[in-house]
Amino acid sequence: MKRKLYHFIFVVVCVLSLCGCNNTSKIKGNTRKVVIPYSFSLLCGQTSEKDLNKMVKTYNKDKNYCSKAYKKNKDVILISTDSQIEKYIKDNKKIIDTAMKKFIKSNKLYKYKIKEDYSSIQLYFDENILEDTYQQLLAVSINFTSLNSILLNGKDWHIKWQVINCHTNKTVVTWNLPNDEENSFTSDDLKQSYE
User: What is the pLDDT of residues 40-73, one digit of tens each?
Assistant: First the structure.
């Protein structure tokens, strides 16, 4: 039940955070076309026509990150000003910072590194991480860093996401998003990082 709740929260976060991103091309003045690529929707599990239409509807209701949204093929397109894009990046960063503070506060050995352009994130922890801390960390570190990577790097976004054993500094898992389909690891993977 708890895992289903976390999955639901992750999906909701994906939908809510899809309010304003990506490959920006100048339209006029400080207005840009922002493409939220389908690869991001796939990552969030929001792939049906109904899901995509709901995203567009949500964007059109909330004008914080765009003045208009529509769907083109399976991408979601936003018409945003530079200040809306900057606000979106800043708001995502606040969410990331809050989650990371909770994460490092949970254990003095835990730490993280995020590249300035959001193309890489490294999370240092061990098998003792609390389930709720891990689930929040997973959702935030993938979703919001992906969005900021999209906003800063365009629709051909990528993130190198790594879990590193905080005791040995050995890599437990590396995912290259959005290309890697397998986004999980086991306690065996953690055990191997002690060898």
Answer: 888 888 888 898 899 899 888 988 889 999 999 9
Report yes or no: 133 and 158 within 8 Å, Cβ to Cβ: no
Q: Say if CB 110 and CB 166 are below 8 A apart.
A: yes
What whole-number distance in Å separates Cα of residue 157 and Cα of residue 1? 33
Q: Quick one: DSSP state of residue 7?
A: H
Helix (H, G, I), strand (E, B) or coil at 155: coil
Partners of 176 in beta bridges: 160
For residue 63, what are the contacts with CB-CB under 8 A and spacing of at least 6?
A: none
Digit-coded pLDDT (tens) for 98-141? 999 999 999 999 999 999 999 999 999 999 999 999 889 988 98
- Report d(CA 6, CA 168) in Å as an integer: 29
Calpha distance 117→159 (Å, rounded): 10
Helices vs. strands in the chain: H and E counts, helices first:
6, 8
Helices assigned H by DSSP within the chain: 2-17, 38-44, 49-61, 82-105, 131-153, 187-192
**What token pair was written down for 72?**
């083109």
Closest C-alpha among 144, 128, 125 to residue 43: 144
What gap in Å lies between CA 167 and CA 184, rounded to an integer? 21
Give the relative orientation of helices 131-153 and 82-105 as an angle to the nearest 10 degrees: 150
